[in-house]
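Protocol step 4 of 6: structure prediction from sequence.
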Amino acid sequence: MKIFGIGMTYVAHNKELHNSLLNIEEPVVFTKADSALLTGGRPFFIPEYTNRCDYETELCVRINHLGRSIPERFAHRYYDVTVGIAFTARDLQVQLRQKGLPWDLCKGFDGSAAIGKWMPLAHYGKDIQQLQFHLIRNGEKVQAGCTADMIFGVDRLVSFISQVFTLTTGDIIF
């Protein structure tokens, strides 16, 4: 199983972090270790090496059969959907970015990829790019998003990643 993250997926989040990736031509892809996966409502623990651990509520897709070089128009046939929370050691990410280093240490640490229950795409209707989702923490809505706000659509991301990596059953894209 592989876990892929897409950096700066949403326009608003990109602006919030003062980045200039709004005009990028290709997705920013990074990987997470399989030990990053957090399932079954298990608790998340903030790593001791960070003073700022941020969370991002995201749509996640799980590949449900083998695919390589998947055309974008067929990508919707290859996945199920859930909501997840991606955790980032933001202070470490700032340091890594300043040095031009990859993000694995700040985004791929143990437990940094919490996911919900998988549902078939058909459960949500036909248009994956119109899904609303949110995060409630201690009874308060702290994040809300819509897949319409993504810089790159889900099907494009599945197709893009499959040009480089063979996607196998169980692979996850955050």
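Step 5 (inspection) to follow. The chain has a mean pLDDT of 91.
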